[in-house]
């Protein structure tokens, strides 16, 4: 599985933040379909969405974060001991995901 797509709806009815939350959910769904995963990284260019993954407070798109946490538990049950990291990656700056990934690898080596 290389890619998943989900049409959230018309842009006049949804915000970028909701789309980023759906992206997190799709990443977990892809992870849930894999076998024998011990480490995984999810890259997101929205700091608010990343911060929301560690909060149980009500807020914008809370229903999506509830689903994210439910799916996260399913993923953890499927992959006991999973080390999951969610990273911020800058968007629209010219830095590509591969550059950010190389930085992650280097930071894990020190």
SSE arrangement:
Blueprint: H1 16-32, E1 39-44, H2 47-52, H3 62-78, E2 83-88, H4 97-109
Parallel strand pairs: 1-2
Query: What's the N-to-C terminus distance?
Result: 32 Å
Sheet with most strands: strand arrangement? 1-2
User: What percent of residues are in strands?
Assistant: 5-15%
| Assembly form of the protein | single chain
Radius of gyration: 15 Å
Nearest-integer average pLDDT = 83
Low-confidence stretches: none
Which secondary-structure class do the elements indicate? mainly alpha
Structure description:
With 110 residues, this protein is mostly helical. The chain has one domain. The chain has helices at residues 16-32, 47-52, 62-78, 97-109; strands at residues 39-44, 83-88. The model has no long low-confidence stretch (mean pLDDT 83). InterPro entries: RNaseH-like_sf, RNaseH_sf. One of its GO terms (molecular function) is nucleic acid binding. This is RNase H type-1 domain-containing protein. It comes from Dendrothele bispora (strain CBS 962.96).
């Amino acid at each position: 599985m290389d890619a998943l797509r989900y049409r959230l709806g018309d842009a006049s009815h949804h915000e970028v933040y909701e789309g980023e939350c759906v992206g997190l959910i799709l990443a977990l769904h892809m992870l849930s379909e894999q076998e024998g995963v011990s480490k995984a990284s999810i890259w997101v260019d929205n700091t608010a969405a990343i911060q929301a993954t560690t909060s149980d407070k009500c807020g914008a798109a809370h229903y999506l974060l509830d689903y994210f946490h439910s799916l996260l538990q399913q993923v953890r049950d499927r992959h006991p001991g999973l080390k999951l990291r969610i990273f911020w990656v800058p968007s629209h700056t010219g830095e590509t995901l591969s550059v950010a990934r190389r930085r992650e690898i280097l930071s894990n080596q020190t």
